[in-house]
From TrEMBL, chain A:
Gene Ontology molecular function: any one: metal ion binding
Classification via PANTHER family: FORMATE DEHYDROGENASE, NITRATE-INDUCIBLE, IRON-SULFUR SUBUNIT, IRON-SULFUR PROTEIN
Positions with biased composition (Basic and acidic residues): 307-319
Official protein name in the record: 4Fe-4S ferredoxin iron-sulfur binding domain protein
Presence of keyword Iron-sulfur: yes
Pfam families: Fer4_11
TrEMBL record, chain B:
Species the sequence originates in: Desulfamplus magnetovallimortis
Coiled-coil portions: none
Signal peptide limits: 1-29
Protein known as: Cytochrome c, class III, conserved region
Any one Gene Ontology molecular-function term assigned to this protein's record: heme binding
TrEMBL record, chain C:
Keywords, ordered alphabetically: Cell membrane, Membrane, Transmembrane, Transmembrane helix
Entries under PANTHER family matching the protein: FORMATE DEHYDROGENASE, NITRATE-INDUCIBLE, CYTOCHROME B556 FDN SUBUNIT (PTHR30074), NI_FE-HYDROGENASE 2 B-TYPE CYTOCHROME SUBUNIT-RELATED (PTHR30074:SF4)
GO CC terms of this entry: plasma membrane
Subcellular location: Cell membrane
Organism domain of life: Bacteria
Protein name as catalogued: NrfD family membrane protein
Protein source organism: Desulfamplus magnetovallimortis
Transmembrane segments: 12-33, 53-79, 91-108, 128-152, 186-212, 224-248, 298-319, 328-349, 369-391
Length: 319, 245, 400
């Protein structure tokens, strides 16, 4: 290993120049900023209105060209097991008995629809190695299969455990999740399939800001009916889909989440360390200086010959 | 199976006569139920959207309806077919619901249960129709206003729940759009009643079993509303009445 | 230490090698199944558990245990401690093969293996995984470049391609000589670059899981996860060299290199000490010690990781006696290697528990076969290379 003086200064000079040209670097090191669209659409799910008819599942599969839901007309035994969205169903309705009783002391079921929450600052979008997932202006978190490499980091990242994978496709598997019916809502007057069909308007479609107002109005006007919280207003930095409910959200498998947007911590770390590659450049320069110094202070190894032990070793070995 | 066929053949005696009925109807230039025709016509109407409503508390609303002297006697339209184009435009999966307006009014004895708010404009009717205020869903100018379909469903299901009366599942009120049976039914030209019954049961075995357990089949008891049988105390389909539901 | 690297002059086909070949064949069959039936056909991965053995072991553990490469390079080449040079070549080879198999493991694991080049053109600089992927890709090339002089040393002026290819002998020789001459001048760039890239992605591998706070057990989930990954990579580098050198020297029956390994592990007491200090300090500051004795498989795994993988071997290495004894040193090094490996497995598999979905994860036989097959292939190639290229130190009795 030889570190030649002229060579060394050439490279180090270049490094220093590139480093100093980035002197204006801290602009990107400032506090993390949300990349949420300003006025996205959303859906407000009112669990007190849902009657568990599962029509949303049916509409979803028709709109998205998925296989028909499992026992589409069953509103009874299907609820005996808790289901999750998967590669064949973007949304499923589950039934929960949370201890609430009706007027006749019979257990009152609460039905909850699950689908992609379309986070304002989605973890999956931040995680995706190739940017195959994007947060659209409409609020939809979209998936571009042509970029996807199938690393499934989005699935690891999602706090709602939504993206599903076509594990049984050997060559061209896709990540499957609710599209927020992008093709419909991006057109004027378009409404997602599930919201269109919902008989009780348990799903209200509209601008997220309007829906938040509607949600709070409903909470205010019906004291005691609802838990005083709009789920998704702040969870994980806010989601396009919002829920209001008369039972605690944990009881219907909507997880308690920090208000911090999921990607904030990792993006802050990544950007403060690697913006303009400043830390690698600094590290490179430091190590270079160290190497130069250690080689110089050790003249035996930088005596112009191949500064290697091998030759030395041969002579020594011979001795 | 045999038992079922025997049971249902009795039932099918009537059904088998159906084509005859139909042909009679055709021949005699069709008697139609005037109620039904009126309801159909009414269902097609779309009235102008009422934007503003008078903000009243539930109790206040009940009192003001009573003050206005609105009662069951004011019910003009006994029967509604809930078949508005406002809903049909978006989707069409089910047959319209038949809503017995007067009957519901008589049962609840409280018009404010459904006519829960009134238009702000005093010239408008005190009890305006649902579809005047509830039209298309997700009206961005009135985000808190639910659409007509949701208004129906929420109103019906909620009340049926709290009163523990009336259906709360889809098929309790709706018939699903029935597929055309022309190509589904496979019968020889001169099918006898047993063949017809067997053909129905080929697909509708579950319904047949359900039927055998229902009050329609098993009901025995007094029949105070059946003309000519008002005083019979042990009548009913389980005994003497014909199963021609 | 006064001898040079030389090809190994040993019988190649031993019973051990045959066992490796058996595992390679089994792994090959499992890989074939994965590419015909899909990942779901051979693996227990699910929508709730998208990452399993392949990412936890083949990738995360693979990268961690290849840390011997950059840590020895930093010591011998950058800090100028040329005394340690005898172990740089085997460590470089381990790193090279390790990273090659990280990539092979990834090819099995990702759904669209044929699309693995796409991150080069679709950048998402917010993605931690993107940075890791870029670093691993560049570092793999750096490692290959660093290895060229070893190839050149063996074949320079001796190029003898088989059969009709022999007409290219002169050309290949020229290329080798040119590459060697050029690289000799600029190799220091690659050496430093290797260390820089390693620091970047070793730490970022820890940042990967920061995006899933609700899924990772609090004993492991900490904002300093990247720092812990980096310091543990520093700490495991030399023990890994001890581990493999001891295995290699005893299996080939050559010099034990103890005179290099003993002082090397003295540095480890310092590096491992930092890691231990950070890890325990983090636990105390965040107050996560309350979970320690929950008695679940997760907390027990944490205790094993810390106690057997960090604290005990660190204590052992404090004793000069342990560092001088080949057996004791090997034991301590093995524990550290196992501890860091378990840490990676813990972070990526054991600590990962999605709260909403039901069901756990245990790797399917197919997954295990793929991983074992890849490890066997790695060992097999290592053996082929040390047999034919000057990587290991030649036995003393030959050179002296």
């Amino acid at each position: 290993m030889k570190i030649n003086r002229r060579n060394f200064f050439k490279v180090m000079g270049a490094t220093a120049v590139s480093g100093s040209s980035l002197a204006a670097l801290p602009s990107d090191l400032t506090a993390w900023e949300s990349k949420a669209p300003p006025d996205p659409y959303g859906c407000l799910v009112d669990l007190t209105r849902c009657v568990g008819c599962r029509k949303c599942e049916e509409a979803c599969s028709q709109v998205n060209g998925l296989p028909a839901p499992e026992r589409a007309n069953c509103q009874c035994t299907i609820f005996e097991k808790k289901r999750r969205p998967d590669d064949k169903a973007f949304t499923v309705v589950n039934r929960y008995f949370t201890g609430k009783l009706d007027n006749f002391d019979k257990p009152l079921p609460t039905y909850a629809k699950v689908q992609c929450m379309h986070c304002q600052d989605p973890a999956c979008v931040s995680a995706c190695i190739v940017g195959a997932l994007t947060k659209d202006e409409t609020g939809s978190v979209r998936y571009d299969v042509s970029k996807c490499i199938g690393c499934r980091y989005c699935m690891v990242a999602c706090p709602f455990e939504i993206p599903a994978y076509e594990y049984h496709d050997p060559i061209t598997p896709r990540v499957m999740k609710c599209t927020f019916c992008y093709d419909r809502i991006s057109k004027d007057g378009g409404v997602p399939g599930c919201a269109t069909i919902c008989p009780t308007e348990a799903i209200t479609f509209g601008k997220r800001a309007d829906l938040l107002r509607v949600a709070h109005k409903r909470l205010d006007e019906n004291p005691g009916k609802y838990i005083n919280h709009v789920y998704g207003e702040k969870e994980a930095g806010g989601t396009s889909w919002l829920y209001i409910s008369s039972v605690p959200f944990e009881d219907v498998n909507l997880p308690a989440l920090p208000d911090n947007p999921s990607p904030k911590l990792s993006e802050t770390i990544q950007h403060s360390l690697f913006s303009y590659l400043w830390s690698p450049i600094v590290l490179f320069s430091t190590l270079g200086a160290l190497m130069y110094k250690s080689n110089k202070s050790n003249p035996e190894n930088s005596n112009g010959k191949r500064g290697t032990l091998e030759e030395k070793n041969i002579t020594k070995g011979g001795a | 199976m045999i038992k079922k066929i025997v049971y249902f053949t009795a039932l099918m005696l009537v059904t088998a006569l159906m084509p005859m009925h139909l042909s009679i109807h055709k021949a005699s230039a069709a008697w139609t139920a005037p109620d039904q025709e009126d309801a159909k016509k009414r269902a097609k109407e779309v009235v102008p959207f009422i934007k503003e409503y008078k903000d009243e508390h539930k109790t206040a609303r009940k009192i003001s309806l009573m003050d206005a002297g609105v009662s069951i006697n004011d019910v003009k339209d006994v029967y509604f077919l809930l078949d508005s184009p406002i809903i049909k435009e978006r989707e069409d999966h089910y047959e319209p619901v038949r809503f017995a307006h007067k009957r519901h009014a008589a049962l609840t004895k409280d018009c404010s249960k459904c006519h829960h708010l009134r238009p702000k404009d005093e010239k408008e009717l005190e009890t305006t129709r649902c579809s005047a205020c509830h039209q298309d869903s997700f009206n961005s100018e009135h985000p808190e206003r639910i659409g007509l379909k949701a208004a129906y469903h929420q109103q019906c299901i909620e009340c049926h729940r709290t009163e523990a009366k009336g259906p709360v599942d889809c098929k309790g009120c709706h018939l699903q759009n029935v597929p055309d049976h022309k190509n589904l039914v496979k019968l020889p030209d001169n099918a006898d009643v047993f063949q017809v019954t067997a053909e129905c049961l080929r697909c509708h075995d579950a319904q047949a079993n359900d039927m055998l357990t229902t009050a329609h089949w098993l009901w025995r008891g007094p029949s105070p509303y059946t003309t000519g049988h008002r005083k019979d105390i042990m009548h009913g389909k389980g005994t003497t009445a014909l199963n021609n539901y | 230490m006064s001898h040079k690297a030389a090809p190994l002059n040993k019988k190649f086909w031993t019973p051990g090698v045959l066992v490796m070949v058996a595992f390679m064949i089994a792994g090959g069959i499992a890989i074939l199944a994965r590419f015909t039936g899909g990942i779901g056909y051979v693996a227990n991965l699910s929508n709730a558990r998208p990452w399993g053995l392949w990412v936890g072991v083949d990738v995360a553990t693979g990268v961690a245990l290849a840390a011997g490469g950059f840590t020895t390079a930093a010591l011998a080449h950058i800090l100028g401690k040329h005394f340690y040079e005898p172990v740089t070549r085997p460590a470089l080879l381990t790193a090279l093969l390790g990273y090659t198999f990280v990539v092979l493991g990834l090819l099995v694991d990702i759904g669209r293996s044929w699309a693995i080049w796409k991150p080069m053109f679709n950048w998402n600089t917010n993605s931690v995984l993107f940075e890791v992927a870029m670093c691993v890709m560049v570092y793999l090339h750096v490692l290959y470049i660093e290895f060229i002089p070893i190839v050149a040393e063996q074949f320079k002026d001796r190029v003898n391609l088989p059969g009709p290819l022999s007409i290219f002998n002169a050309l290949v020789n020229l290329l080798l000589k040119m590459a060697d001459a050029i690289l000799d001048k600029i190799m220091w760039i690659f050496v430093i670059l290797g260390v820089v890239l390693s620091c970047m992605h070793q730490s970022s591998l820890g940042s990967l899981m920061l995006i899933a706070p609700t899924k990772i057990h609090p004993l492991w989930y900490t904002p300093i996860l990247p720092l812990l990954f980096l310091t543990s990579a520093f700490a495991v580098g030399y023990p890994m060299v001890v581990f493999e050198t001891t295995i290699v020297t005893s299996s080939f029956n050559i010099d034990s290199e103890m005179e290099v390994l003993s002082p090397l592990t003295k540095i480890t007491t310092f590096l491992l000490g930092i890691y231990m200090f950070l890890k325990i300090g983090d636990m105390l500051i965040r107050g996560t010690y309350v979970y320690l004795f929950d008695g679940t498989y997760q907390t027990n795994s944490f205790i094993v990781e810390m106690l057997i993988g960090v604290i005990i071997p660190w204590g052992m290495l404090l004793f000069e006696k342990v560092r001088r004894s080949r057996k004791a040193l090997f034991t301590a090094a093995t524990m550290i290697v196992g501890g860091v490996a378990l840490n990676r497995i813990n972070v990526f598999i054991v600590a990962y528990k999605p709260p909403l979905s039901e069901g756990g994860y245990f790797p399917a036989p197919g997954e295990i076969l793929v991983t074992l097959g890849l490890i066997a292939t790695l060992m097999f190639i290592y053996r082929v290379i040390v047999t034919y290229l000057p990587v290991l130190q030649a036995p003393k009795e030959v050179s002296s």
